[in-house]
Predict the structure of TRAP transporter large permease protein.
Amino acid sequence: MTALGIGAFFILLLVGTPIWAAMLISGAIVLVLDIGMPAQAVTSQLFISIDSWLLLAVPFFLFAGNLMTEMGLAGRLFRFIENLIGHTRGGLPATGVVTCAIFGALSGSSTATVVAVGSMLVPHMLRAGYDRHDALGVIAVSGTLGQMIPPSIYMILFAAIAQMDVSKLFLAGILPGLVITVLLVATAVILSWYGDRKLRERAGSKAVMKSFVDALPALAMPVIVLGGIYGGLFTPTEAAAVAVAYVLAMSAIFERGNFTFRTFFRCAESAVVTTTIIFIILGGATVFANAMTFAGIPQTVTEFMTSLPVGDHGTMAIVLLLFIALGTVLDPVPILYITLPIVFPIVQAIGYSPTHFAVLTIACMMIAQVTPPVGMSLFALSGFFKVPIGTVIRGAMPYFAALLLSLLVLWWVPWLATVAE
């Protein structure tokens, strides 16, 4: 029955069944027919999987990111960074990278980031002589920075699965996020030397200062959210709610023209839809993961992996390669929920730091978001700008290589993730 359930999972994927349904059906086959669990218990697992105070942070952070985009605060942030570095060689794509990094720290949503920053940056890069694929590629990859730089939705999911302190993971993601940002900026600067690109006129000091003052409401948000968490004022979930209240207050004061009920409800609807997608995948993945656990698969895999004569680094290399391979066919959320119950005990058995492993896992999920043919960021930009997916993939490849290099750096320099422990 276990073999039948696993076989059903792959067959359902091949015939185009939604990933959540494939995991739910195959998991139910194992739990009901093999383990003997009542069908009602399988249904209850769908609700238990999302009955978490920590997961409540997901819709709030998504909502805050949507509000930042639609009500204008994100535009203020972009204009400040553009005035600051947009005139330099590679300044426009670097502006996109830095804006994505900061915006990711505001919303935690890669989809919201690529759409928000892409809609502002791409027209500027096209006017400066950049090819469309160059403009879309840098945004597609840079938009994933929000999954490493806190508050990260994937870190919230990792903490929920591994039963870890999410505030500790948030702190661990700061330095790795900065390292990846620097490598992406360096890639943008190197690429800018090829081709005839116009340099925009340098903004005057008054313009830079004015745009900085205008951007202060947006720049202050991560300080308030993360400062409140580490200062003990509120939990990560409460911080997500504070983020929504803060964006609404700042938008009401500084962006009155965009502060409308129509915009508010449009942002809320988008957050609800995205949260529903995440949670329904989470429910199916939980049923599937529990089925594999009851069948003893994680224990068997752990014994096998720890007995391999490849050493600790060899075992970790296999795990990371598994993540990257799965990223070619699955979205990051099901990857996390399917694999972590199996590989996390392996990582603990070989003595790896759970915090370091969390950072490496999130770096792999960033890669999965831009790995053809199912990368979410690739499809988000392709759909928003109505261009072939191949155009986005072509422009993303140099930055994709930078992400792979970042993963190697974070793997071989573990203190970047564990310095805050």
Observations:
- The chain has two domains: 1-48, 54-418.
- DSSP finds 20 helices and no strands in the chain.
